[in-house]
Design goal:
Elements: H1 3-7, H2 9-18, E1 33-37, E2 49-53, H3 54-60, H4 67-79, E3 84-87, E4 90-93, H5 95-102, H6 107-116, H7 121-131
Antiparallel strand pairs: 1-2, 3-4
């Protein structure tokens, strides 16, 4: 995202309204407008963005190369052989086993290891949730 939009959300709103964004409350989600990059290799910036129907934007979505995910799975399978298993033809990791067998039962050590390995915070949160370390909240309790 361009620095101007990142630092000043009002400039994005102003750009959106000047460039055709409209919200139609009675239309379905697929008919609503969503932002689209003209050149997907460039950032979100005023010269590279436009508004198109959400349905069309979904149709234009390309799925990226996910080979790095498979490579990471094989890396962890070699690192934690007793916690690896095959699921859907690819190695999967049993994070409970990793925590208990390799991290001395400490979730904090596992989280630090995942941070150091380059895992994104959302993936770490999901792993912690699967381990039972995150207390599920009702929607009304979320901040």
């Amino acid at each position: 995202m361009c620095r101007k939009w990142y630092n000043d959300s009002d400039s994005f709103v102003l750009w959106a309204l000047q460039n055709g964004y409209r919200y139609f409350p009675n239309k379905r989600k697929g008919d609503q407008l969503s932002i689209d990059r003209i050149d997907s290799s460039r950032d979100y910036c005023p010269s590279n963005c436009r508004w198109i129907p959400h349905r069309e934007n979904c149709a234009r979505t390309r799925r990226g190369d996910r080979s790095y995910i498979i490579e990471r799975a094989y890396f962890f399978a070699r690192l934690f052989p007793t916690a690896a298993y095959i699921g859907y033809g690819q190695p999967k990791i049993d994070w409970k086993k990793v925590r208990d067998d390799y991290m001395g039962g400490e979730t904090s050590r596992l989280v630090k290891f995942l941070n150091d390995s380059g895992y994104c915070p959302m993936a770490i949160w999901r792993i912690r949730k699967d381990l039972g370390d995150v207390i599920p909240q009702k929607k009304s309790e979320r901040v």
